[in-house]
Amino acid sequence: MRTLFLIFLALATLSTAAFAEDGMALIPEGEFTMGRTKLTSDDKTTMRPIVLLDDRPDHKVRISAFWLDKTEVTHGAYEKFLEATKRQAPYHWKLRPAADVPIFNVDWEDAREYCAWVGKRLPTEAEWERAARGGLEAVSYPWGDKQDPKAALYNVQSGAGPIAKFPPNAFGLHDMAGSVSEWTADWFEREYYSKSPPENPKGPETGQYRVIRGGAWSDSAARITVFFRNWVRPNQRTPNLGFRCAKDAR
């Protein structure tokens, strides 16, 4: 029996390795608490603006296993996409930074097209938060509850820096806080959390704005939390907004 078990274990390991995605982390299936679980002094006095209540109520969400890029898509990777597709380059292209700096000045359609070109897709907002938390519940950042300028690039004016210069979270993902904000697949709706389905939510069917997550180099600590939601028009192109790709697990 022990021999059969060892053979089964070896085959399972080989199978997992065979389906491993280069440069991606497998985010396991699981349930987590999505949204802000902490009350602020403004919440307690009912003075918090309604627009800033979009990260509540916190709610349980179950996500199927999926793959997510360990890092944000870089200028080097995006250059190959431009060469192959002849798509219009971002407006800063002649003055672009090093190849290992996250791509920015790309709109939602640019990000979606790149992901499709490499056989992937944009993550849903729920997938993004599940991945950013790295299995941690009721914390503010991918690494825990305390602000840490040594854990992410934020609250600076220097612009985006090279990827993976900060420690990864427990799922092996770099720069889920700070660096550049990241496009998700979802439309934004302020009260969506109050009616979100409990399994694999994909956001509203339509909208004016797309959800972006993670905060950027230019943001304060309050905007790089795992639960902070931001939203912009799909045609937005800014120096602090990029993306990473996801893929269904087989």
In terms of DSSP E residues, the strand content is 5-15%
User: What proportion of the residues is helical, as a percent range?
Assistant: 10-25%
Helix-and-strand structural type: alpha+beta
Strand order of the largest sheet: 7-6-5-8
* Average pLDDT: 91
- SSE order, one letter for each helix or strand: HEEHEEHHHEEEEE
CATH homologous superfamily name?
paralog of FGE (formylglycine-generating enzyme)
End-to-end C-alpha gap: 29 Å
How many strands, which pairing sense, and closed or not: the largest β-sheet? Answer: 4 strands, mixed
Runs with pLDDT <50, length 5+? Answer: 1-18
Number of helices: 5
CATH class: Alpha Beta
**CATH topology category name:** paralog of FGE (formylglycine-generating enzyme)
Specify the overall morphology: globular
Strand tally is 9
Short overview:
This protein is α+β, with helices and mostly antiparallel strands and 250 residues long. The chain has 5 helices and 9 strands, in the order αββαββαααβββββ. It has helices spanning 2-19, 41-44, 75-85, 108-117, 125-133; strands spanning 24-27, 30-34, 59-63, 66-69, 181-187, 210-213, 230-232, 241-242, 246-248.
Give your account of this protein's structure.
This protein has helices at residues 2-19, 41-44, 75-85, 108-117, 125-133, and strands at residues 24-27, 30-34, 59-63, 66-69, 181-187, 210-213, 230-232, 241-242, 246-248. The protein is an alpha+beta fold. Mean pLDDT is 91; it is low at 1-18.
